[in-house]
Design brief:
- There is one protein chain.
- With 140 residues, the protein is mainly β.
- It folds into two domains: 8-70 and 125-139, Chitinase A, domain 3, CATH 3.10.50; 74-120, Thrombin, subunit H.
- 7% of the residues lie in helices and 41% in strands.
- It has two helices and nine strands.
- The strands form two sheets. Strands 1, 2, 3, 4 and 9 form a five-stranded antiparallel sheet that branches. Strands 5-8-7-6 form a four-stranded antiparallel sheet, with no helix packed on it.
- The radius of gyration is 18 Å and the shape is elongated.
């Protein structure tokens, strides 16, 4: 059986940056990643790369940033009033903002000034090309 759109699959994976740094791996989560192929649950480049693979098959794929988390959007770098943020924040720290729909967005603290804090709401991997080593564990 081959992976097709609409199938639920499980994959083991290791994701690395261009310099070889591992940014995520299924073993960190203690289980394979499970998703429905073609449903948009994962980044587009990875979602498309698994199509046609078979159980037990392994491959390495390179995904350009526009097929992953996109290019950084300058409009997502914003200034917020300092009093609206925790008093103990530090530059470089990551805050998790919760939207009304429950979605969580990481915000990186870029600069702290007297009255304002500059935050970057782009995904931490925006603008980065990614490499994944994947293995199909299960197809349903």
């Amino acid at each position: 059986m081959k992976v097709e759109k609409g199938k639920k699959i499980k994959i083991d994976y290791t994701g690395t940056l261009e310099d070889g740094t591992v940014f995520d791996a299924s073993e960190k989560h203690g289980a394979p990643l499970e998703f429905e192929v073609g449903s948009g649950q994962i980044i587009k480049g990875l979602d498309e790369a698994v199509i046609g693979m078979e159980k037990g098959e392994e491959k390495e794929i390179k995904i350009p940033c526009d097929q992953a988390y996109g290019k950084p959007n300058p409009e997502l770098v914003q200034k917020l009033p300092k009093e609206k943020l925790p008093a103990d924040i530090k530059e470089g720290a990551l805050l998790i903002s919760k939207l009304p729909n429950g979605q969580q967005i990481p915000a990186k603290i870029m600069k702290i000034e007297e009255k304002e804090v500059t935050v970057d709401l782009n995904h931490p991997l925006a603008g980065k090309d990614l490499t994944f080593k994947i293995k199909i564990v299960e197809i349903n």
